[in-house]
Amino acid sequence: MEDVSPKTQMAKIRNFEKGFMATHLINIGNKVGVFDKLNEKKEEGATVADLATELGVHEPYLKFWCQTAYHFELLDCDDQGKFKLQPFLDEILGDKTHFRNYMANITMDVDLFGVGFGETHEFFKTGEKYETFAEPEISRIAYETTKNIYLAFLFMIFPKNEYLKELLDKGIKFLDIGCGDGNLIIQLANAFVNSEFVGVNPDVHGVDMAKSTISQLGLEGRVTVDSIGGEKLTYMDEFDMVSMVVTLHEIPPDIRESVVEKAYQALKSGGYLMILDFPYPSSLEDFRNPMYEYGIMDQFYETAIGTVHLNNNEQNELITKVGFKDIQRMPVGKGMFDFITATK
Ligand SMILES: C[S@@+](CC[C@H](N)C(=O)[O-])C[C@H]1O[C@@H](n2cnc3c(N)ncnc32)[C@H](O)[C@@H]1O
């Protein structure tokens, strides 16, 4: 720590407070449609009056919102009073189809974690747990944040692991444990038309969402989903690949080993286990290493749902214990994730 003074410490805390305000400001802007509108008008910009009329919002409030967004350097303004999104924020906060769009995470921060944090301080006294995915809306908000993960498989993981892509191209059976709303297996089914996909997830709302997309896309012949936890699987030597995507950390510690064991049993001999998850520190020192930021944040906001992240050694031990061999690990997305493969 360098030059620590009351002033720098106060500035640090103020900065956290400003981040809190900015996150809420972005969420409010999203809810009233300002980011969509400013993205639509990204070339010419819009005055507060125009925005208020077109969005049907209260102009005096919107004026303060725009001025504050200008303060946070989310917006710029020209000499005619037209506000515009700052460079690249049309992608990050505007166009929701852009792979870089981050609005789903802001929504999850405020609407899920913000609400949860307000209640869970009581759980810190008792160790009680929050019920995960209790309502369809919670599942919808949560899976919106992972909807682009399939792009990491197509453009970061497979190009560096050609053998996986070749197998999928040829035609294999693929099981996704903790399949969320089925997005990964649905997108992979679109990309690899010779392969068959099965997804399982104890979250019934996620499975319902998956079923509806599968039937909309007419993929019933090659993609199926079931609302069971990985610990209840009974497959034996059936699959060529089994994945767990941002799921291993979320499986309750008391059943985690049994899920990995069922994954092992489900695979054919020579089949591949693929795990994508956040790296997590193994020493206190590393809790200040920025490469673990995602894992550290995830552990914090999922504490009261019973999540306990595993570090690299703990993951390796678990995978080896159930019989997997040849564990390989590579960073994905500038270190946001570790991609781990192991063979049966
Ligand atoms: C962060 S979500 C990721 C979901 C999905 N893989 C995605 O990328 O969108 C973690 C998932 O783990 C699932 N999960 C929790 N316990 C599980 C278990 N025992 N077996 C299988 N999945 C489980 C949750 O229901 C949730 O869908």
Question: How does this model look, in words?
Answer:
By secondary structure, the chain is of the alpha/beta class. The chain folds into two domains: 6-101, Winged helix-like DNA-binding domain superfamily/Winged helix DNA-binding domain (Arc Repressor Mutant, subunit A), CATH 1.10.10.10; 136-343, 3-Layer(aba) Sandwich (Rossmann fold). 49% of the residues lie in helices and 15% in strands. The chain contains 15 helices and nine strands. The strands form two sheets. It has a seven-stranded mixed beta sheet, sandwiched between helices. Strands 1-2 form a two-stranded antiparallel ribbon. α1 (6-32) crosses α6, α3 (48-55) packs across α4 and α6 packs across α8. The longest helix has 27 residues, at 6-32. The relative contact order is 0.08. The mean pLDDT is 96. S-adenosylmethionine is lined by residues 133, 143, 146, 149, 177-180, 184, 201-203, 206, 229-231, 245-247, 250-251, 255, 259.
Question: What topology does this entry show?
Answer:
Layout (H helix, E strand, L loop, with lengths): L5 H27 L1 H7 L7 H8 L3 H13 L3 E3 L5 E3 L3 H6 L8 H18 L2 H4 L9 H9 L4 H12 L1 H9 L2 E5 L5 H9 L4 E5 L3 H13 L6 E4 L12 E7 L7 H14 E11 L15 H9 L10 H10 L3 E8 L4 E7 L1
Parallel strand pairs: 3-4, 3-6, 4-5, 6-7
Antiparallel strand pairs: 1-2, 7-9, 8-9
Helix pairs in contact: 1-6, 3-4, 6-8
Bound molecules: S-adenosylmethionine.
The site of S-adenosylmethionine (SAM) has 23 residues, from helix 13.
